[in-house]
Amino acid sequence: MTGQPLHAAIIGGGITGLTAAFYLQRRLEDMGSAPRLALLESEPRLGGKIRTTIRDGFLMEHGPDSFVASKKSAYQLVQDIGLENELVRNHTGQAFIARGDRLYPIPAGTMMGIPVRLWPLLRSPLLSPLGKMRVVQDLFWPRKETGGDQPVGDFFRRHLGNHIVDRLIEPLLSGIYAGDIDHYSLQALFPQIHQLSKNRRSLIRAMSGAYAHVKQAPAGKAQGQFLSFKTGLQSLTARIESRLKSCTIMKGSPARAIRRQGGHYRVELDDGRTLDACSIILAVPGSAAVKLFPAAGNAISPVLLTPPTSVANVVMAFPQGTAGMSLNGTGFVVPRGSGHAITACTWAHLKWPHVAPNGAALLRCYIGGPHDAQLVDESDATIVDTVMADLRHLMALRETPAFYQVTRWKHAMPQYSVGHLERLGDTRRTIATQFPGVFLAGATYGGVGLPDCIRQGEQVAHDLVDHLAQRNLLNSREASHVD
After folding, report:
1. Interior CA angle at 448 toward 390 and 135, to 5°?
2. Rounded alpha-carbon distances, angstroms, from residue 214 to 187, 199, 223, 306, 415
3. How many whole angstroms from its chain centre is CA 436?
4. How far apart are CA 281 and CA 40, in angstroms?
5. Is residue 237 within 8 Å of 50, Cβ to Cβ?
6. Start-to-end C-alpha separation, the chain
7. What are the φ/ψ torsions at residue 88 (nearest 5 degrees)?
8. Using an 8 Å Cβ cutoff, are 174 and 181 in contact?
9. Whole-number Å distance between alpha carbons of 41 and 237
10. What is the number of other CB atoms lying within 10 angstroms of the CB of residue 27?
11. Degrees, nearest 5: CA angle 3-440-292
């Protein structure tokens, strides 16, 4: 590399790295400093898990299909890149849960299976009379919460009993996080609920007070909680890429190693090129960060205590629609130990009408996770046959798909085990002390959803600029070039 070192090299072109690059560029320009930035991505495309394809009028998402509207970081980014007019909100409808070979409505007045109001739950056939009695006991039993972190499963079982956890809460949470709730950290997944539990003996009373708005949504008229784009979620990453005018984008350029080089860092690429940078953003999975920067491995490894799990996304198109069970809702989740391979199924054409032609059906199913990861390694045909067998039992599905897409995400779902936030804090402090100017961000650390990754990308951009300003590294407007 010639010229001055880069202000920053961002390793990883997923949504976290793209967000970091965008806000770095904007803040440096606002401060009157010509950005010297490079974004490196090992794959030939940017976006990471965000990938949209269109075939025969079907819009198919290979990774996430939306983001939560209530988390402000994602919507703010959409506004900042001028894409808000392309947003679409999901259609709402009844969600179901499998029990045996039948689908039962998920009771109203619950959030991720956690009761906010009791009456709909008490009327549901999902729980036995004894299971319902155990839930009600939460209102009256005195209990003292532990002060520190604890497994999510233990917390909900202590408050509400095994029955509701196994039949309702576990399948809903596992469908989102693809993990084992008996190992997941309560503080990492549900910091608000962890705090609520300290102030109220009853979880139900605490949830009812904090989420009273759930009660006010008229049946069937609730506003959708998720947002996507008319042409798919990839519109987001494509627009960010188009806005990175002052950032060198290097696709298909795997980084091989990162080394300290005097007062800065040197990034070595697989093709022999090098880049010198004042700062580094590691927006890659933790295991990849350790391989790239082994000097920091001891600092990063504590947050990798539990290995990530593997999942697969199976999208199936039915141009003539489906017969059998009448689809009227958004989809269903499947409890662990049910005998079914799929963990969830979204009726995408009903949840997002723009993703399929009129009269057609688009089903999106999920497999894998810590208890069935081996299925992810099977052939596409075997995976689809397994998924279809489950759908024939659960939905009386008779048709076969005209085509399908199987996308495997190997070792891609982080598992935040108990104590994650404390270990993460130690890791960040060690990195800041031993490797100033190196920043970690992404799903490995602070949340797997798009808004969480976007929030982290924006935060490290601000932290990095502050780091450069404190060291008087922002004054020069000289551009740099990659050799």
Report:
1. 65
2. 23, 20, 11, 34, 29
3. 28
4. 10
5. yes
6. 5
7. -130, 145
8. yes
9. 13
10. 17
11. 65
Encoded tokens for 289: 């960060």
Kind plus residue range of the DSSP H or E element containing 207: helix 203-210
| Rounded distance between C-alpha atoms, residue 111 and residue 229, angstroms | 25
d(CA 269, CA 38): 12
Please, what's the largest Cα pairwise distance for the chain?
73
Distances (CA, A) of 39 to 76, 253, 324: 22, 10, 49
Phi first, then psi: give them for residue 359, nearest 5 degrees. 85, -10
Name the burial class of residue 328, with classes exposed (0-12), middle (13-18) and buried (19+) by CB atoms within 10 angstroms of its CB: exposed
Q: How many C-beta neighbours within 10 Å does residue 34 have?
A: 15
Q: Are strands 226-229 and 87-89 parallel, antiparallel or unpaired?
A: antiparallel
Q: What is the dihedral of CA 43, 46, 50, 55, to 10 degrees?
A: -80
Cβ of 225: how many Cβ atoms within 10 Å? 13
What distances in angstroms separate CA 91 from CA 74, 121, 149, 349, 352, one per listed residue? 19, 23, 36, 10, 6
CB-based contacts of 123: which residues, under 8 Å, 6+ apart?
107
Instruction: Provide the pLDDT for residue 219.
Output: 42
Asked whether 16 and 454 are in contact (CB, 8 A), the reply is yes
| pLDDT tens for each residue of 281-304 | 999 999 999 999 999 999 999 999
pTM for this entry: 0.93
Parallel/antiparallel/unpaired status of strands 58-61 and 264-269: unpaired
User: How far, in Å, CA of 441 to CA of 444, rounded?
Assistant: 8
Q: Decide if 463 contacts 280 (C-beta within 8 A).
A: no
pLDDT tens, residue by residue, 6-59: 999 999 999 999 999 999 999 999 999 999 999 999 999 999 999 999 999 999
